[in-house]
């Protein structure tokens, strides 16, 4: 999708710019600093379960209010990469800024303010919160954090975003789906290497053990031998102690594993160009009884796996 305010009247720019961004990311309001002179362009592409966009515009302030997400079923994170100057972000009690060379995480399930005073160019990734949660755990600690994109995995991630945008017109739909998965894995890997995303409650020994066990599970979801005993042995703790840790947090080990695997199945089903059958996807992520998989999937997502696959392919054709 390509959009420009070039043909918009001065009185309509604020409204139309806000409407365009709301359709691209999620509902929000916008206040252009100088609406009569404001100019903005936006290009956006679908990368399977991810959305990628490039925008360039003059100074603007965005508001995400509670009314904007009151009825939203699924939440998303926005990953913003600024190029020409700092962007400012305020959410909950955090007030931060991010400049070129870094990237900012914005939670879509909480109110926030985002602004830049001068013309800026931004790359933005829209990522399902559930996809990040299935790889990193709780995402509440990610909001308003900025990450270094000049070294290590962060630089690799930023380079991959750049390469994707530069080559996007030459990549077919199947390639775009794969690019989205690649960017998602790199994003999570780059954030995981930062100590700040450790659970804020991990100051106790028990919480640290639980976090280690949960991360082991998230890293080994495709292992057909993943079970409670393997988790306990790999984390160097007894099975009874592991069960107690999960029970204290209102989880069962089996339920936690199933929940994370269902999220991975849902991701795969939403990739329109994935040629795997529903049964093959379920089997890949540890569901060997198809009837039980469909039962758990419907309970979690409110529809059948086939419904999700059909809808994703329909959306790919219609651009929905």
From TrEMBL:
Gene Ontology molecular function terms on file: DNA-binding transcription factor activity; sequence-specific DNA binding
InterPro entries documented for this protein: AraC-bd_2 (IPR035418), Homeodomain-like_sf (IPR009057), HTH_AraC (IPR018060), PchR_regulatory_protein (IPR053142)
Keyword list, A-Z: Transcription, Transcription regulation
PROSITE patterns in alphabetical order: HTH_ARAC_FAMILY_2 (PS01124)
Gene3D superfamilies: Homeodomain-like
UniProt domain HTH araC/xylS-type: residue ranges: 211-311
Name of protein: Helix-turn-helix domain-containing protein
């Amino acid at each position: 999708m390509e959009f420009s305010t070039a043909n918009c009247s001065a009185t309509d720019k604020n409204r139309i710019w806000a409407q365009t961004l709301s359709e691209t990311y999620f509902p929000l309001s916008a206040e252009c600093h100088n609406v009569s002179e404001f100019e903005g362009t936006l290009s956006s592409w679908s990368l399977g379960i991810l959305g990628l966009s490039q925008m360039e515009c003059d100074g603007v302030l965005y508001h995400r209010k509670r009314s904007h997400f009151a009825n939203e079923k699924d939440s998303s994170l926005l990953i913003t990469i600024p190029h020409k100057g700092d962007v400012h972000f305020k959410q909950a009690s955090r007030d931060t800024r991010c400049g070129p060379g870094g990237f900012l995480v914005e939670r879509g399930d909480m109110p926030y303010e985002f602004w830049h005073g001068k013309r800026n160019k931004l790359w933005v990734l829209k990522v399902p919160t559930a996809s990040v949660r299935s790889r990193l755990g709780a995402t509440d600690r990610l909001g308003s954090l900025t990450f270094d994109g000049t070294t290590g995995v962060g630089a690799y991630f930023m380079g991959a975003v750049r390469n994707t945008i530069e080559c996007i017109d030459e990549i077919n739909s199947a390639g775009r789906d794969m690019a989205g998965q690649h960017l998602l894995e790199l994003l999570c890997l780059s954030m995981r290497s930062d100590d700040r995303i450790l659970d804020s409650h991990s100051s106790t020994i028990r919480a640290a053990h639980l976090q280690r066990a949960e991360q082991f599970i998230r890293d080994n979801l495709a292992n057909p031998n993943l079970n409670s005993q393997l988790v306990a042995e790999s984390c160097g703790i007894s099975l009874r102690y592991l069960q107690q840790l999960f029970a204290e947090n209102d989880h069962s080990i089996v339920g936690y594993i199933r929940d994370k695997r269902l999220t991975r199945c849902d991701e795969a089903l939403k990739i329109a160009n994935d040629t795997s059958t529903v049964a093959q996807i379920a089997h890949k992520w540890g569901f060997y009884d198809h009837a039980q998989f469909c039962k758990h999937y419907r309970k979690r997502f409110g529809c059948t796996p086939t419904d999700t696959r059909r809808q994703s392919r329909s959306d790919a054709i219609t651009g929905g």
